[in-house]
Amino acid sequence: MVHVERPQVVSKAAYFKLVGYEPHPKQWLFHKSRARFRAPCCGRRFGKSRMAGMDVQPKLLVPDRRAWIVGPTYDLSEKEFRVVWNSMIVRLKFGTDRRVKKAYNKKQGEMRIEFPWGTVIECRSADHPENLVGESLDHVIMSEAAKHKQDTFERYIRAALSDRRGSADFPTTPEGFNWFHKIWQQGLSPDHPDFESWRFPSWDNPFVFPEGRNDPEIKLVENTTTDAWFLQEYGADFSAFVGKIFGDWQEDVHIRSHKFNPEWPNYGAFDWGFTNPLAFVEFQIDPWGRVHVWREHYRSYLRLEEHLRIIETRQNPEGYRLDCTFGDAADPGAASYVTEHFAPCIADPRAKSGTVDEKGKKVFESGWREGIELVGSYLKLREGTSFIDASEAVTEGDMSAVDMLRTPFLLVDPSCVNGIREFNHYRAPETRAEVNTREAAQKFDDHFLDALRYGMMHVIKLGALGHLSDIYTVQDFLEKTGAQSKGLATDSGYFDLNDLEF
Question: Which domains are present in the chain?
Fold first, then answer.
């Protein structure tokens, strides 16, 4: 038997070498994390059970610790316990020491190891909640966390971690936007420093899939299963479902904290509402053309003037300014009111319904479809590049031309909780051939997305970053927005938003 001292800190790297465990690079991200609550969302065959089972073992070498592996059933908790058993009882031969009390009976639900230094690890099942009370815990593995009921962790486990400031791991394959998704989201937000999250597709495991995303086995599974099932089970994608409109949206890629940069233009976009929420979305565009959505206002049952009063009295970052706003052309009166009482607001009908030129040729067949395609194109990552390599540069607001190619061109601050929810859920159900996509798309919970779409259509598609003088004369602008009082006329009779400071 290997002699083990009673250390207070055990090196994971040294222990892993001792037991012959070689994590692949993505597993090391988990092992090196010091977060108290860790939520790895993993595809099948990524190695999540082995990863969690190996990571807990150095903790078990510290005296007087208590750890649980909690599964929805005993069968599911057994996977991580098997890893612990094989390494510590078999490989390190702790099982030969009579002082080690142990049991491994999955059928009877008795899986437990008690070491001579007072540390215990055991399996518990959420099928028997009466066995989940009364203990103080140093660590818990919520095996297949997405399959658990929310009540299991919040009612029973979380309280048991408080006395000893215990930690928890949540290794799982996703199952839609359930309670685990909320835990996982916290790990993406700087407001929750005790949490850390990852999304690990199956092909991140080079030992099983040496050719990564293009591994023949991955391609075979992809070609012989439904897209939604493949993306969830192998792609570790929460939002993989049929009819998802923004298929490239990924929270771990597109959610990034944003610090307001007074040197970049700042725009706002409205989706009017009363019973439905009024959404006001602010976004900056950096010198490389990326859109940074950094703030949202999202309220129902208020008059427009009340919304504007709330927006105007918010605490703003240093150097704050609002260059221009945009809105739904369906309510030109609202756009005019915003221009008169808040900030210039443009509401071009083409941003919503499309238009034709002087010769009757279609410029946009559908402003909605054009807007959806525009937002979707900004969500895409460039082929063969890595977002992770550029994430620090995004945070710092300093991006080289090479790094720029490694990021999507649309990033959303984690404070925009309503926008994130809408991105996750926005979908079009299966429809008859004679029903167009816009008619089939959901007509609820899309207010943030509508506002963002109006803003991006105006700024990018209709030329506010270029030359709106090609679209509007000053008279057009004054008539459409009531901007006469803002003094926006120029000697040339035209204007360019890039030249205006509101």
Answer: 12-240 (3.40.50.300), 266-499 (3.30.420.280)
